[in-house]
């Protein structure tokens, strides 16, 4: 989530600009942890739409989760 936050900042966005999150996880038994960590970063009063997909593996075998965030910012 910190890496996603850094990417948002680099694009001139914040977590408040995120309207869709997709989590790709190898193991769904950690769902409570994923939600708890997500809630540290997003506005839980107005959360973005989110999906969670279980996958057999990710690009790097040592990774357990991949996060895709879609944000919209006004033209500046």
Please describe the topology of this protein.
Blueprint lengths: L1 H9 L7 E8 L5 H11 L7 E6 L10 E7 L5
InterPro entries: RutC-like_sf (IPR035959), YjgF/YER057c/UK114 (IPR006175)
Family: Belongs to the RutC family.
Explain this structure.
- Belongs to the RutC family.
- The chain has a single domain, classed as 2-Layer Sandwich (60s Ribosomal Protein L30, Chain: A).
- It contains 2 helices and 3 strands; from the N terminus they run αβαββ.
- The chain is globular, with a radius of gyration of 13 Å.
- Helix 2 (31-41) links the parallel strand 1 and strand 2 (49-54).
- It has a 3-stranded mixed sheet with strand order 2-1-3, with no helix packed on it.
- The protein has 76 residues and is α+β, with helices and mostly antiparallel strands.
- 26% of the residues lie in helices and 28% in strands.
């Amino acid at each position: 989530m910190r890496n996603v936050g850094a990417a948002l900042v680099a694009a001139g966005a914040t977590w408040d600009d995120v309207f869709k999150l997709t989590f790709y996880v190898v193991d769904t038994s950690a769902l409570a942890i994923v939600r708890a960590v997500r809630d540290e970063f997003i506005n839980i009063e107005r959360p973005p739409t989110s999906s969670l997909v279980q996958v057999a593996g990710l690009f790097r075998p040592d990774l357990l989760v991949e996060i895709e965030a879609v944000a919209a910012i006004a033209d500046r």
